[in-house]
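USER: Write out one fold?

ASSISTANT:
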Amino acid sequence: MRNPHDIIVKALITEKGTRMREGGNKFLFEVSSDANKIEIKYAIEQIFSVHVEEVRTQMVMGKIKRLGRNQGRRPNWKKAIITLAQGENIDLFEQV
């Protein structure tokens, strides 16, 4: 197993994520592109000391950006939606 801090890149704090957190005890994270659901679950449980019920992942395609005639592309990244057990919480999101 890899280091849990290498798997979890950062926590995503968005309006949609806030609604998911309040309504269904779900949290959003940007994770390493080559991480699988089992590694993500293990990393979240080790870092935050919580029990994860479900992990859903999604590949987010990078947008094409232009500057005059030049065209580039932002990198693709992976998003994980973590569902925690009832009554559990991650304090990182409560501070925001």
